[in-house]
Amino acid sequence: MDGNRAGEQVDLFVIGGGSGGVRAARMAAARGARVALAEMAEFGGTCVNVGCIPKKLYSYAAGYGEAFEEATGFGWQLDSPPRLDWGKLKAARAGEIHRLNSIYQQLLEGPGVTILRERACLLDAHTVQAGGRHWRAKNILIATGGRPFVPKMPGQEHAVVSDDMFDIDPLPKRLVIVGGGYIACEMASIFNGLGSQVTLLQRGAHLLNAFDEDIRSFVAAEMGKAGIDIRLNTQISAIRRDGGECRLMLDRGQDLRADAVLMATGRAPNSEDLGLELAGVKQDDKGAVVVDAQFRTSVPHIFAVGDVSTRLQLTPVALAEAMVVVDALFPEPGRAPREAPDYDFVPTAVFTHPSIGTCGFTEAQARARFGADNITVFCTEFKPLRHTLSGRGERCFMKLLVAKDTDRVVGLHMVGAEAGEIVQGFAVAMQAGATKAHFDRTIGIHPTTAEEFVTMRVPNMG
Please, what sign has the CA dihedral across residues 51, 192, 164, 202? Predict the structure, then answer.
């Protein structure tokens, strides 16, 4: 391609208006850079529109269903069974998402980012085409995120993906979810709580393979107790439409009928048709853009952050990565550039019911990294105070992993109510290198679930 194309000049061209792209664009513009951003869909990306935010809102909604059941144990008399107005919930969610979309646009307009509501693609290493116009960019940031991945099978067109679930109509009475990752598990808990009969099909022997073995086993048991039909080592060979319902052909010759089938079988990077090959940008075998520790691609002035890259796929990580890029390109006088995130101690949550919170290494990872005999494990399992009266059998599980040679806490895991809120605070301590001695010297807040993390004293010998 011609490397001397005429076009409007910018210091940074951002392709993608999700969390990482918007953060990079507005912060670069605020530092005086000429910035353009191209995004066809609503601002905020997956997280705001069909991911973190609507998922958490629906998780809250599902939680109210559980709370109504628990209330009688605390003396409340419910005169009639509560009823979910699915349409009202969807409308309320849509209103909140629209509000957030507007805020994102204002964040871009404030510092003067040129907004292009068009699809953009690279024509060469410095030229971007968007809306029939050419843009000459000194630097380019690819922040196009990811999309649901559906494996090819007969009848796959009869299934939906996670993006569709927030407006599905009607609310399915019988929902089959295919997959065992965090999206599958979260959707199972949400729609089970909203009143659907949920069956979860996982081809492997475990749910949540990337998580600690004790965590994934414990949460699977709790989800089963809540009424979710979990079927492991199960594969689908085909989906058929039979009148008004879906019929799934399973690998053992069985069939399963449902009102809706959700394929929660992973995500793929949004890297197609971006012209990456024309610019010389390398991708891995899954299509993710290969980046180095500073998020540079194989072309030094082209960067990639977030789910489209080969790094960790979490919204707060994309935000942190975006600021590393901005600091490298447009440094603030007198301030040291930000370092790349410490991926070893990135906290995360899974909004199942009960929820998961985790930070650091799984037990298998810790033994591989620090030595099989160099890890001390502390575990506790108990019924939370709330459920001593609620009538529910839900239990809580907590786990600490400690490196013997340094006494550092290298893994912290929890299944229980508000696990994400609890683990977020401990993540600060773990990032600072907290030791088990620090935990032991910390006074707990009583009575709370969180205090159990600072009162575990006896190692698990099993």
Answer: positive
Nearest to 354 by CA among 218, 454, 452, 451: 218
Q: Are 282 and 237 within one domain?
A: no
Question: Which residues make Cβ contacts (< 8 Å) with residue 64, sequence separation at least 6?
Answer: 82
Task: Specify the number of domains making up the chain.
Answer: 3
**Crossing angle of helices 86-109/19-30, nearest 10°?**
30
Task: Check whether 2 has a pLDDT greater than 50.
Answer: no
In the annotation, is 446 catalytic? yes
Question: Residue 33 falls within a domain, yes or no?
Answer: yes
Strand pairing report for 127-130 and 120-122? antiparallel
CATH number at residue 444: 3.30.390.30
CA distance 446 to 453: 12
Domain with residue 128: its CATH number is 3.50.50.60
Q: Is the pLDDT at 32 greater than 70, yes or no?
A: yes
Q: Verify that 251 and 290 share a domain, yes or no.
A: no
Question: Are the C-beta atoms of residues 188 and 228 closer than 8 Å to each other?
Answer: yes
Q: pLDDT at residue 3 above 50? A: no
| Other Cβ atoms closer than 10 A to 254 | 10
End-to-end CA distance of the chain: 63
Among 264, 409, 456, 236, smallest CA distance to 350 is for 264
In this predicted structure, what is the pLDDT of residue 333? 92
**91 is in which domain, residue-wise?**
8-147+269-329
Per annotation, catalytic residue among 158, 387, 413, 446 = 446
pTM over 0.85: yes
